Structures are given as structure tokens and as C-alpha cells.
Amino acid sequence: MHQLGFVGAGKLAGSVIRGLIRAKFCASDEIIASEPNEQTRTALQRDTGIHLTTDNAEVAEKADLIFVGVKPGMALGVLRDLAPQIANKPVISLAGGVRTASMEKVANARFMRALTNTPSAICRAATGIARGSRSTGKDVDLAKKVFGAFGVVVEVDEPQIDIVTALSGSGPAFAYTIIDALAKGGVKLGLPENISSELAIQTVLGAAELMRETKMSAEDLVKMVVTPGGTTAAGLAVMEEMKTSESLIAAVEAATKRGQEMAEETKSETRISKS
After folding, report:
1. Are 164 and 128 a contacting pair, CB within 8 Å?
2. Helix, strand or coil for residue 242?
3. 153 and 122, same structural domain?
4. pLDDT at position 268, please?
5. Do 125 and 239 belong together in one domain?
6. Is residue 164 part of a domain?
7. Is residue 264 part of a domain?
């Protein structure tokens, strides 16, 4: 038996596995994962030393806690196939847009959902978890313990999971876009690309760490940097004119809306498959 099992070990699930090993949450021989892509299996084996297979049923049979890391469109079909093996087991879905109610209709497992992100791999995850109707207090405590090992974890109601998906799951891509834009600004004005990129990364990293450690609001931290009539004020004025904040808020809203649409699509597919 293995403590943890992953059905699907692609980008997100692979990041979670790497984070668990890096955090020394458990030994590599306590994790089993199924993954059809040979290249992905090879890389994960090299990085973590866990047991890998191509057989989803083997994972479901041998693990105490199951993580579902397949693409959202495949999740319900995979769970339906594994229903005998996962009966009465705690199962955590990493798939966006697949509601616990839909999962509970295809298998008699104790389902929960966890929406995390790829910084899991370096123990800097931001995770939201939501319990299902069959989840026990021990199940939720275990989920918090697992995800808390490699980052920040919060419990939310399931309707809020789509927002977590947008903010934490999609958020790194938004942050990378900001870092890239800052670096390109430096290059445009004459900095070498490598130097500008290094400065942009460290600037965003340092700003985030300062905000977390001081627990000061963004507004107060901005005031610490701004001098009336100075360089920061000039830059912020352009950002306001170009509605930078509004565009980022809109990005979170758009990603959330898409998550909600995916959930409705999944429900429709479930109804069709039953009819």
C-alpha cells in the first residue's frame, strides 16, 4: 500500500508530487502515480523516485488517499471506471470545473476538491480546498495537512472554488505576464535582457515577500514607495491611465466565468451519458 496515489501526473499533479517530495512530507516509496505519457513518467521518476505506472486501477487499489490529476473533460469518465476501487476512500480532485456533486454521482468515494498551482513544485503553492457531502472532518484535516506541507492552504465553499481557480490556479500566468512586461520595459530602455529579467523577477518576489511579512495593505505599501512628482508617481499615472488594475481584475473575472462554464458543460455531459 502507498500513502498517496495520483491518477494522472501531468503539469499540475506533477508539481504537487515534486512539492511533497521537496517538503519531505513522505518518502518517495509512499507515493504511486499513473501517467500515460512516457516522457512525463521519465521526468517525474528522475526528479522524485516515486513508483510510476500506466494503470489507473493500480493506483486506486494501492493508495490510501487518491488525487485525480487528469484533464477536467476526462475526470468523470476516469472516476466512473475506478468506482469499485475508490469506494469509501478519500479522493481529492485537482480538476477545475468538475463539481463534487457530479463526481459523487459516478462513484461512492469521499470527494473533495483542491485547486492549487504550479509553484507547488517549489513549496510556494496557494491552494483552496472544498469538501463534498461525504467528506469527514478527518478527510478535510488530512487535505489541509497535505497541501499545507508545500504552501498556503485555505478552505472555501465549493461555489468559491472557481474564484480560487482563477486567482491562484491561473494567477501565476498573470504574474509571469507582469514580470515579462517589466523586463521588456527595461530592455526597451537599454538594459541587457538577462539583467532586466533578473531585476524584474527579484523586484516582484521582494515586493510579495514584504507584503506577506509586514501584513501591510497594498495601498500603504504603495505610499511607502511613492514620492509626489517622482518616478514611481509618473509610472503609476500611466498604469492608471491604461487601466492596468482594471484589466487584471477583468482577467480574474474572465477566468472565473470560464470555470463556471466548464462546470455547466460537465453537468450537461453527465446528463447526456446517463440518458
Report:
1. yes
2. coil
3. yes
4. 62
5. no
6. no
7. no
Q: Are 100 and 39 in contact (CB under 8 A)?
A: no
Same domain, 123 and 215: no
Tell me the per-residue pLDDT of 58-112, one tens digit each, with 9 for 90 and over: 999 999 999 999 998 899 999 999 999 999 999 999 998 899 999 999 999 999 9
Residue of 273, 21, 248, 46 lying closest to 150 (CA atoms): 21
pTM above 0.85, yes or no: yes
Strand, coil or helix: what is 69?
coil
Q: Are residues 151 and 186 in the same domain?
A: no
- Residue 273 has a pLDDT of 55
For residues 60 and 89, membership in a common domain is answered with yes
The radius of gyration computed from the CA coordinates of the chain, to the nearest angstrom, equals 21
Sequence-ordered list of residues with C-beta below 8 angstroms from that of 89, at least 6 positions apart, any chain: 60, 64, 65, 66, 109, 110
Count of the separate structural domains present in the chain = 2
Distance CA 137, CA 30 (A): 23
Reduced to 3 states (helix: H, G, I; strand: E, B; else coil), residue 149 is: coil
Amino acid at 268: S
